[in-house]
Structure formats: structure tokens, C-alpha cells
Amino acid sequence: MLGLWGQRLPAAWVLLLLPFLPLLLLAAPAPHRASYKPVIVVHGLFDSSYSFRHLLEYINETHPGTVVTVLDLFDGRESLRPLWEQVQGFREAVVPIMAKAPQGVHLICYSQGGLVCRALLSVMDDHNVDSFISLSSPQMGQYGDTDYLKWLFPTSMRSNLYRICYSPWGQEFSICNYWHDPHHDDLYLNASSFLALINGERDHPNATVWRKNFLRVGHLVLIGGPDDGVITPWQSSFFGFYDANETVLEMEEQLVYLRDSFGLKTLLARGAIVRCPMAGISHTAWHSNRTLYETCIEPWLS
Ligand SMILES: *[C@@H]1O[C@H](CO)[C@@H](O)[C@H](O)[C@H]1NC(C)=O
Ligand SMILES: *[C@@H]1O[C@H](CO)[C@@H](O)[C@H](O)[C@H]1NC(C)=O
Ligand SMILES: *[C@@H]1O[C@H](CO)[C@@H](O)[C@H](O)[C@H]1NC(C)=O
Ligand SMILES: *[C@@H]1O[C@H](CO)[C@@H](O)[C@H](O)[C@H]1NC(C)=O
Ligand SMILES: *[C@@H]1O[C@H](CO)[C@@H](O)[C@H](O)[C@H]1NC(C)=O
């Protein structure tokens, strides 16, 4: 008898609970809603948060409920301010967002913003960045006089810009902070107050700490492509750059990689570097191309 009761009792309980089942299911957390990490977006040169409206729509559509913050700092011409000043400003803006996200955050950083973000990862010893998505960003520098440079320095050809950029005055412009003239390596190493430091190309007291900080990142997602038209060489988006003969050497052939001076080699060995090259996208189309979003960005926004 007891055995029979033992079998029937559960069945009876289920029957009693049946009317409340819809309520119970509603109360249970739906697995697909399991909170997505907040996304922080940093814009590029002469750019502002407005250009990211399509990206925001995509994220809202595919990952509903994600908290996305497009930082409206150093917009338009203000984006020419020295990069260290911008890093300080963006740092103050990301600290509270990170503090509210114990699971971590994702960074999507476009063009020049990609360098601001890399510096943030280096100087913040408490950052919790899971995916750092570098969207067509001149990570190894820029050596090309595209339209925006002609507007800024009308008389300077690209082979002469080093005279301005590698002076203390020049380093007051963001563009000069990552101007990388392959024909004046010694001047670059000496004068670059930003790129040569975050690359660990010029030694400085914080280099070891910065490298350690940078290596806290979960994934480094590099996006760029041959039809960009502004980033020169376009392989700079993937840590490739010109040698003294203007032949592009890939990341694995770069001294900063071989010396692992800021952590690239370690990240690659860990399987943490994702390279996503995309043809057919011009520089100003990176933040609104849906194919690109689905292929290169969405998979890394968990
Ligand atoms: C996100 O999507 C929902 C549902 O489609 C819509 O109601 C809402 O306005 C969207 N929010 C943004 C910020 O796009
Ligand atoms: C660099 O190191 C010095 C001395 O340890 C420290 O005071 C300073 O805050 C560090 N700067 C950065 C940007 O990490
Ligand atoms: C590097 O900078 C130092 C001090 O700023 C200067 O004395 C030296 O001549 C520079 N070297 C080169 C190659 O420009
Ligand atoms: C550049 O090319 C010249 C001639 O082809 C060659 O002698 C030289 O070694 C090259 N330099 C570099 C840095 O590759
Ligand atoms: C979007 O990206 C795809 C794939 O790279 C490319 O073929 C297409 O032309 C792009 N569309 C626009 C509008 O840039």
C-alpha cells in the first residue's frame, strides 16, 4: 500500500499544480534572455554617436535588452585632441559602466577609436573587457594622405608629414599620435608619444604593467578590409604595416609581434585573436553594413 501511495503521490501533486503551470513558466527566467553583456561604443575621427544608429538597431534586434552606450565624447573636430587626453576622458566614462557589469563588457571601437580603446585596455588595471572589437582601426598606424589629411594639412604630402607630426607641436594632434612613417623609423620611435608607447616599441616604466592589463582581454576581434580607402595600409587594421620599402608585412612578421612587446603573440597563442577581413566595404560604411555585423560582430557579443 505504501509503495502505491509513493507512486501516486507525485502524480497527484502534478495534477494539483497544473492550473498554475503557466504562471510557474512565466516566473522562470527565459534562457535566451540570459543577460547580454553591456556594449560600449567608441567612435572615430570627425565622427559622433549618430553614425552608430544602424549598429544599435542590429544589436537591439539580435540581442534584445542589451545595454549599449555610444560614448558622445570628443565628437567632430574635438576628435583631433591628443589621444592621451581622449583616453582619460573615455576612461572616466567607461569606469561606471564596467563597475555595473560584474560579468564584463564588450567594446566596439571604430577607426581612431580603436586606438583609444587599445590604450584603455593597457592603462586600466581593473578593466573587464570580454570582446574588444576593433572596427577598421589603424592599429599599427597610418601612412596615407587621405582626404581628411589634405583638409588638415593642405600643403603636406604624405612623405613630408613626418616633419610636422614628429615634432612636439605635431603630437598635439590625434592623427600625429599614430602617424607612422616607415621611412623615418628612428624619428617615429623617438617622437611618437602614443603609438610607440602602447606598442611597447619605446621602453617606458609602465610597459610591463600595460602588457599585463592588455592581456586581461577575452577576445581581440580585428575587422578591416582592402576597400576601406582611408586606413593605409589597410592591413594596419590587422597589425600589419609597411616596411622601409613600403611592402606590407603581416602581423606575424612585425617586430612588436615577434618581441611580444604588448601581448599580441601571447593572445594569438591563446587563440584570443579573431581576424575578420571583409572586402567591398568603404571606410564610412563599416558601422552600417549588416553582413559585416552578422559575420564579424554579433558572434562576439555574448
Ligand atoms: C528595440 O526593439 C524594440 C522591439 O522591436 C523596439 O520597440 C525598440 O524601440 C527598439 N529600441 C531601440 C533603441 O532601437
Ligand atoms: C605609470 O606608472 C607610474 C608609477 O608606477 C604610475 O604612478 C602611473 O599612474 C602609471 N601610469 C599609467 C598611465 O599607468
Ligand atoms: C631623440 O630625442 C632626443 C630628446 O628629445 C634628442 O636629443 C635626440 O636627438 C632624438 N633622436 C633622434 C634620432 O631624433
Ligand atoms: C628594400 O629593397 C631593396 C632593393 O630591392 C633591398 O636591397 C632592401 O634590403 C630592401 N629593404 C627592406 C627593409 O626590405
Ligand atoms: C556590405 O558588405 C558586403 C560583404 O563584404 C559587401 O559585399 C557589400 O557591398 C557591403 N554593402 C555596403 C552597402 O557597403
Report what the structure shows.
With 302 residues, the protein is an alpha/beta fold. The chain has a domain at 39-142 and 205-300: Rossmann fold (3-Layer(aba) Sandwich). Helices cover 38% and strands 12% of the residues. It has 14 helices and eight strands. The strands form two sheets. It has a six-stranded parallel beta sheet with strand order 2-1-3-4-5-8, with helices on both faces. The N and C termini lie far apart (53 Å). The protein binds 2-acetamido-2-deoxy-beta-D-glucopyranose (5 copies).
Task: Tally the beta strands.
Answer: 8
* Mean of residue pLDDT values: 89
- CATH fold-level assignment of the domain at 39-142 and 205-300: Rossmann fold
Helix content: 25-40%
Q: Give the overall silhouette.
A: globular
Which compounds are bound in this model? 2-acetamido-2-deoxy-beta-D-glucopyranose
User: How large is the count of helical segments?
Assistant: 14
Give the amount of beta strand, in percent: 5-15%
Q: Which homologous superfamily in CATH is the superfamily of the domain at 39-142 and 205-300?
A: Alpha/Beta hydrolase fold, catalytic domain
Major sheet strand order: 2-1-3-4-5-8
Task: Sketch the major β-sheet.
Answer: 6 strands, parallel
What is the H-and-E element order? Answer: HHEHEHEHEHHHHHHEEEHHEH
CATH architecture annotation of the domain at 39-142 and 205-300: 3-Layer(aba) Sandwich
> Gap between N and C termini, in Å?
53 Å
Assign the CATH class of the domain at 39-142 and 205-300: Alpha Beta
Structural class given helices, strands, pairing?
A: alpha/beta
Please mark out the parts with pLDDT under 50 across 5 or more consecutive residues, or reply none: 1-18, 21-32
- Radius of gyration, in angstroms, nearest whole number: 24 Å
